[in-house]
Structure formats: structure tokens, C-alpha cells
# Entry
Amino acid sequence: MVLFMVAIVSTVATNFPTVVVEASRVGKEPMEMAQHVEVFDAAAIQATDAKDLPQLAARVPGLNVYHLGAGNPALAQIQMRGYGETGFGRVLLSVDGEYLSSFDFYAPNYTRVPLGGVRKLEILYGPQTVRYGDSASAGMINVITDPGDYEQKTYGEIHGGSWGRVGVQTGTRGGFEDEGVGYFADMGYDRADGYRDNSGFDLWNAQGGIRKDFANGSFLRVSAFFNDAQYDLPGPLSEYDYRHHPRKSVYRDWAHLTSFGTTVSGRGVINDENELSFIATFSQRHSHYTNDDDYGAYTYLRDYESNVWNFRFAPQYDCTADLWDFKSDFLFGGELKYSRLRSDSTDQYLGFGPATQESCMTDRWTAGTFAQEEFWLIESLSLVVGARLERDWNRNSIAVNGGRTDNFAAGEVALNWHPVDEAKVFLRWCRFYRNPFTDEYRWRDGRKSETTKPETGWDVELGGQWDITDEWFASAVAYYSEVEDEIHYNPFAMSNENSKWLHRREGIDLAFGWERDKHAGFRFAWSGVNAIKAEGIYKDNWVPGVPRQQLNVDGRVWLWDDFSVSAGYRLVGVRYAISDTPNANGRLSAVSVFRLGCRYEPSFWHLEGLSFAFTCDNLFDESYCDYAVASVTSGKNAYYPAAGRSLLFTVRYEF
# Structure
């Protein structure tokens, strides 16, 4: 840390030029990276008219979104690369360097992402374990809100639509160039009664930060956030009710989630070839969940409350000095994380005895280090080699052995051929791991739990991206992966456990499109994956919850310079319900959802900066379900209906 501070203050000057602060540890353009990357800038995000991250993800090729609460973003889950149940635990979500992926069973809080104030959103496909550690074995979503300059921008937005949905968001960013100080802040509120009975939500989100820039490109940055989410839990329906009464709910459950935290990050430039950076984050999350479920013969009551504390510190050194007269980029970093979960629950089956109470305390320390070298064999061809070593100490008050210690190793080797600025071809091999959630264990009837082991696997992919002209683009990726000890739900034992047999995934992602500014554009993207149990009694069975294919077709036409009409189509292929490891309950039907919208952005007089948008999602009011849970004992599925036709109007002003 002393060296880092010396690097900052040693070259302080009185005049501060405009600097670009990249909060991402990626720090490269997509064509420079030996992997498949999708990037959305602020304009592209606004053009989708999405109001939350799950809405945006549903329009991104290769991402699969589960809707457990119809249109409630707090109850959505995002998966990728052929993972189904708990797939969200394999897609790392980062906001300005803060990891939102939790070490317990909660999916990331997607309401923490203020889409209206995002500068850049990067989606990295495939394992990212070497650079980012746990929770990134399938990919990563990296969100950057820090504007990185001093340009003054302020925006305000209000939207409203079906089922009582009303939201407002405002934010500002800018700075004082002479003093080298930048700032940003965003605040939003979103609420709805919900498509289904007992599916409403109230969501508050606020965040902001300040950044001090130094003349040599160094900076220090401090940010903080607060989020409050209160929402109903409508629960699943029988197949009959799902088909005939999709808006019905038989549950009276609800949840309240409150979180806050702060992040300190910085970069110290030593010279033109060497720099140090670091990030330190602290967050706390309080959740309270209660239910009162009527199962006919009995009523099950549960009250669950938990607190999670997270701390992470990650320093990094970057050296771009030539190696043997060849261009080189060497990264070396470390990571220290600590997480604690304290939970208390009360459970009772009315008429079947008194209530039972249980408390749990779990701690996880993680210490890791990684190194990555990118070496240019020739000007257009680079070799990437990286490795990560990590050690975890877990303490669990209800585990059989009180906890466990695990050692992890990850590695990658990649070639990136970049013959011209507009094209690349890459070949990449990765070894990855995933640590189980701290509450992802086997236990029944109050007995001590048997802790699950970490997953390990490897992945190889071959792909390329090509900006054919200024208007045409295309990409193609093929991948193959195998996972050992994959954690899944055993419906017969009614608990999570490590599979005894190998899981295999092989897939293809294809995309191409064309766009001419202020005229028209389209994008076609198709993803297919064969995710199967490769061994054992369920050999060749599909991995539950994974659609065999997804298709996204989107288009936009400008009727005149200020007014455009857009349309979209999304196909999600057939799949088995979550937990249907035997593939016994039948496949869920394929889903076809259409979207239609328009956008007016006047460019004349004092109306410039205003935009008006209208979107109709699920245009033909398709009754569908993208998430269902199987019961092996009854041979039936429990269905979570997605939202029907919804209308949304948005007015935004930016100045």
C-alpha cells in the first residue's frame, strides 16, 4: 500500500488533463480479448428500453433468464453456457468492481444495477476463473457506472405500464477538471402490483461515488450504495392452474431484502510500463422471508431471517514492458475475501407438532493469487497463459465436521489472432472450479449436514468475431466442457449433493447483423447446447432447466431521423423442469415471445435531450413458463408462470 501511495503522489501536477478511468479489470477492447465478449454502451442499453438487468439479459444472445416472480426483477435468475439449476452461481455479476454474487443460495440482487446510469456493460462468455475466481465458471457480467471523465450529464426518467408498474430514476455525473475531481450518483424507485396475485414489489436503489484523478493517470475512488427490496412471493402452480389461471397464486409469502456497502479503489502509475491497482469492498445484506402455505392436509409455516457480511481486498500489478523485444502484458494479483452468514429459522407443520427453531453460523475465508501473461508472438498473434491458486477455509455450525478447507487451481491457455482491427479468431482452454454455496449441503430432519465438495472442470472453445464493414458484423463460437462433482438436487434424497458422474456440455453460438445509423438495422443470434449427464444411471439425460436452443431476432427501422420502430422475437427451446434428473416428467414446451416498440427522440429546439418510448412485451399474450420444478414422488411439475402481455411507457430527459 505504501508503494501504491508513493506511485500516486510522486507525479502530482497542478493541471489535470481529462483521464479515462476504467473500473473494469478487463481493461481491453473486445477484439483484443481471446474470448467471446458482448459490449453494450449507454446508448445501446437505452435503445433496448429495458428497465432492469433481467429485461436486458432476455434480449442478449446466449443468456437464459428464469422468471420466478413473473415480471419481478428481484426474483429473476440469469444463466448461461448450459447450466440450469443454481446456474446463477456460475455467472459472476460485478458492479464497478464489487462482486454481487453471494456465497449463499441467494441469486445476485439484479435490482442493484441502475441501467439508466450504466456507462458500459460487458458480458464475458465462458470460464473467467483465472482472473476473477469463484462464481465465474460459466461467465461474467461486468457493469461500469463510473463515467471516467468530467463531462456534465444529468438525467431523469419516469416510466409506467401494466399491473400498476411505476418507476422513476434520476442521476448525475460530471466533475471539475482543474481540480481533477469526478463524481456520479444515481437513485431509482420501481414498484408494481404484479402480473399474478401476490406478486407485487417495491424497489429502492441509490448509489454514488467520487473520484480523485492525478496527472500521471493515477486515481482514487470511493463509492457507496443502498438497496431496499420488498416483494411478494407468488409461488408455483399446478399444471391445470398454470394453463387456465396463470395469474392465480395460492401462496401468501413475502420477502424483504436490505443491503448497503462501500467500495474503495485506485490505480497508481509508476511509469509508462508499470502500474499498481487495488479494490476493497465491504457490504452487508439483511433478508427476511416468511410463508404461510396451505397444502390441503396441513399448513406449513416458516420464518427465515439472515444477515450476510462480505469483505474483499484485491491488489493487482500490471507490467507492459517488452519481453525479449516482443510486446508483453503481465498481470499479477491477489485476493483476500471474508464472508459470514448468520441465519435463524422457525418451521412448523400445523397439527403435526410444535415449531422447531434452528440457527446457523457460517464463515468463509478465501486467499488467492493469480498471474496472467499475454505475449505477442507476432504483431497479430498473441499467446495468453494464466493460472490461479486459491485456498478456502469454511466453518459451518451445522456441518458434520464443523467445516472444511479446500485448495483450488485454475488455468488457461489461449491464442488470439488479430489480423486486422476489425477481426479476431481465438482458441482457448480453461481449467475452472466452483465453490459450493455455504448453505448448499445435504441435511434432513435437523441432523448435521454433509458438506458438498467443490465442482471442477475444463472447457475449450474456438471462435471469432468480424466487423465485416462499418455496417455488417458476425461472430461464431463453438465450445465443449466437462464438469466433475457437479452439484445438483437429488429429488429422491430431497437435498443437494455432488453428482457421482460426469456432466458434459457442447454448444454453438452464432450471430450476425447489419445496421445503418438512422436508417435500419437487424441482429440474428442463435445458441444451441447439448448439456447431458455423461455417465451413470442417468447417462444421456438432459441437464434439467437448460433449453436446447435459443433464438433472438431483433430489428429497428427509422421512419424519420427522430422516430424509430423496433420489433423482437425470442425463442427458448424445450427443456426439462428443474430437479427432473430422471427426465421423467416430460419436457416443457418451447416458448415464443414477440416484442414491439417505438422511440421518439426530438432533435430540434429545446426538446433535444428528451426521449419518448413505448414497448409492448409478449405481444400476443403468450401463456408460458420458463421455470418449473419437478416432483419425482408425484410425477408432476410445479410451474412459475411468466408475465403476459405488458405495456410500458417511458419518458427520459438528459441534459
